[in-house]
Structures are given as structure tokens and as C-alpha cells.
Amino acid sequence: MQRQRVTYLAASWCLGYPDEELLERMPLIRSALAEFNGLDRSFGDVLNALTAKPLAEVQAWYVQEFDLSKRHALHLSYWTDGDTRRRGEVLIGFKQVYRNSGMLVNTHGELPDYLPMVLEFAATVDLAAGRELLTRYRPSLEMLRLALVDDSLPHAQVLQAICDTLPGASPTDRQQVMKMAGYGPPTESVGLEPYDPRLLPMQGGQ
User: Fold this and answer.
1) pLDDT tens for each residue of 46-74
2) Nearest-5° angle of CA 19, CA 22, CA 24?
3) Residue 43 has pLDDT above 50, yes or no
């Protein structure tokens, strides 16, 4: 359980916008990860990337890859609902989970399905409820992971570490992600744009 908490909090910090506070936390992050066999290797590349260049350059790179690009969207419901009307209902569901915890969760202006926020919630507020959200949106995590793998970003290893805390093995391709989500194989390959799997054909022509 403690390994999961450390994984989620370290991932939350590493996937968020890099700033001076993150750099100050680096020794703490490395020390905490080293307490668990193999965990430091999952985060090693991204931690090195975050400190390999001046902070301003790292920040500019982060904005380009995560804020301006939909290819690496960090909002879980974006991968399943895109910018549809239904997504508003989904976001309300995230907020309700936070409210049910009895703790005041500061969203800092972010949407409640923002992955670093969900991870921090799981690590520091309610592990069970946070894991339930991550499990429910496992297909989103896997789609993001595959996108990061495609673009050779070190954050892919962090997503893998998150997925490793959840039941079952990670899919090897997007078609397997669709099966994980309970949908049949798409008629054409799924790209990196947000998709709604409910709109894809079901197996057996259902």
C-alpha cells in the first residue's frame, strides 16, 4: 500500500508542470522511490530529463508536449469523451468523489479529471477512491502511455508504473485497449486524437 502511495505521489509531481518546487523535491522523490525495489528505475529517465536542462527550457518543452498537444492529454475523460456534452457529467462525477472524501480538494483551476490531481488525491487523501478512479479510467491511462511510447517520451515509464499498480497486465496496442474498455475492435485504427469508444462498432455487429 505504501508503495502505491509513493508511486502515485511521485507520478503526480513528475507529470505536473515543472517548477522550482519540483526541483527542490527531487532529493525527496529519489529517496522515496529508492525504498522500493525497481521503482526508482521507472522514474529515473523522467527525473533525469527534468534536471538535464535549465528550468526555463524544461518548462517550454513541457508546455509544448502536454499543454499545447492533444497527443499527450493529461485529462482522463478527454480520451473517452473528448469535448462532448457527456464529458461535463463525467467531470461532475470526479468532483463528487472528491467531495465524498470529506477533504477539501484544491483543483488549482484544473479540471477534476487532471491526472496529476487524481494521483495526488489517491496518494494523500483516499487511496481506495483514487485507485477506483484510476481503474475506471485504465483505458485512458493506457492510451496515454502508448502515445508517450510512440513519441519516445520518458513519461511513458511513469504511466507504466501507475498501470502496474492496477489489476491486470497492460495492453500492447490500442486494439487491446479497446477490448479492455469492453468494446470490440474498431473498423479502422484508432489514432491519438480523443475518441469515444461507444461510437465504435461492437463485436458481432452489435
Assistant:
1) 999 999 999 999 999 999 999 998 899 99
2) 115
3) yes
- For the chain, how many structural domains are there in total? 1
Give the contacts of 105 (CB within 8 A, at least 6 positions apart).
Answer: 98, 112, 117, 121, 125
Count Cβ neighbours within 10 Å for each residue of 35-69 and write b for 16 or more, e otherwise.
eeeebbebbeebbebbeeeeeeebeeebeeebeee
SS3 114: strand
Helix or strand (DSSP H, E) at 129? helix 127-136
Domain that holds residue 40: 2-188
Task: Compute, in degrees rounded to 10, the torsion defined by CA atoms 17, 134, 172, 13.
Answer: 20
CA angle 145, 172, 84 (to 5 degrees): 50
Q: What is the pLDDT of residue 171?
A: 82
Return the CATH number at 85. 1.10.3480
- For residues 114 and 82, give the distance between their C-alpha atoms in angstroms, rounded to a whole number: 14
pLDDT of residue 17: 95
Q: Give the global pTM.
A: 0.83
Q: Does a structural domain hold residue 181?
A: yes
Residue 205 has pLDDT above 80, yes or no: no
* pLDDT-above-90 percentage for the chain: 65
User: Quick one: which of 159, 113, 144, 124 has its CA closest to 14?
Assistant: 159
